Amino acid sequence: MFIDIRNQLTDELAEISGAGTTKTESEITSAQGSHVTIQGKPFLNFCANNYLGLSNNPEIIAAVKVSLDEHGYGLSSVRFICGTQDLHLQLEAELTGFLHQEATILFPSCFDANGGIFEVLMKEQDAIISDELNHASIIDGIRLSKAQRFRYKNRDMQDLEQQLISAQSARRRLIVTDGVFSMDGYLAPLKEICDLAEKYDAMVMVDDSHAVGFMGTTGAGTPEHFGVGDRVDIISGTLGKALGGASGGYISARSEIVDILRQKARPYLFSNSVPPSVVSGSLKALELLKSGEGLRKTLHSNAKLFRQLMEAEGFKLLPGEHPIVPVMFGSESDAVECANGLHSEGIHAVAFSYPVVPLGKARIRIQISAEHTEQDIYDCVAAFIRVRSCK
After folding, report:
1. CA 111 – CA 271 distance, rounded (Å)
2. Is the CB of residue 244 less than 8 Å from the CB of residue 285?
3. Is the pLDDT of residue 323 over 90?
4. Which residues are 131's β-sheet partners?
5. Cα–Cα distance between 147 and 222 in angstroms, integer?
6. Could you tell me if 202 and 176 are in contact, meaning their C-beta atoms sit under 8 angstroms apart?
7. Cα atoms in the Cβ-side hemisphere of radius 13 Å centred on 236
């Protein structure tokens, strides 16, 4: 029997490979940073979510080492049995204050946070209205709920209003959106979303994984960036990007929402606690963020410089202000060829093609870090130019 299944799986993999959608993994043999070593060769890294350059920060590493001595390696338990340390409570309190919310609950990842909230909060008589380009974790989380499902076109407020009108018979309505759409670097129009939520008596949830730490006046994310922090009911996010880059996620929200999640959210109840070393490192990352805006300024300056240089050379970029900068290509093969060329030039960047992005909109997604120097930016642009001229 398994021989037949193996043959079926082999055929499926061949079909995926033929479509150019298989994912290969680069074996990095160094710490994560703006410069990495891949199979013994040095590369400039332009595809990490290491926005603030904290993944290998010496102060964070030192804090983690102390935590290992004082709080151990792991807890071998879920939170409500014997998996809650003082560090977990401290991090939840720090995130609550940082994000200007009422309460916070930690999860093993943001995927788990998004996978656990909808089933608990939204029932058959409720409605979830979701942006069509929301992250896979939101899509999967919504599927676990029995709520009515509505989808609106990406950042299209007219369509969102139509979906809200269609959902008016529901007991509760929840609009959910990414704060930043990771394939495009576009920001959700949160002010307009909040306006419609108030007009049609809906709650608002934002997955701000690609914004918390560096968007907004203090780095509190897109709600702060748009001045609607007090109008967003739920924020989900990750500790695995700007906030140190390790792992872990959270829901920060109205206190009643967090209270019910502690009682009923399955990924929280049945997954081991976030390791104390990760919690300690995240606490240090928040401390560094509060000490000044230098990292945020450097990040945005680097992103602006890269955009200016690439546009001056005639490359097609999606417009925006975020450090996700998609470089667009006319075909999937062009994007892959360019990425391979960049690799030969010592630039680590990845091509994205259908079905990860729409057909005909292949791209190389460049991600800028505060750890990049100006010379790193110039070197990356020069590599793009050399690869293009080789055609």
Report:
1. 13
2. yes
3. yes
4. 152
5. 27
6. no
7. 28
What number is the average pLDDT over the span 204-225? 98
- How far is the C-alpha of 343 from the C-alpha of 177, rounded, in Å? 34
| Residue 58: predicted pLDDT | 97
Domains along the sequence of the chain with CATH:
25-56+293-389 (3.90.1150.10), 58-290 (3.40.640.10)
Report H helices in the chain: 2-18, 58-71, 79-82, 86-98, 110-121, 136-144, 157-166, 190-199, 222-225, 255-264, 266-269, 276-290, 294-312, 332-344, 374-389
Per-residue pLDDT reduced to its tens digit, 305-316: 999 999 999 999
SS3 344: helix
182 a catalytic residue: yes
pLDDT of residue 7: 83
| Catalytically annotated residue among 71, 88, 135, 210 | 210
Residue reference for tokens 């299944």: 5
The catalytic position among 225, 241, 322, 361 is: 241
Burial 97-113 (b: 16+ CB within 10 A, else e): ebbbbebbbbbbbbbbb
Q: Is the dihedral of CA 97, 100, 103, 105 positive or negative?
A: negative
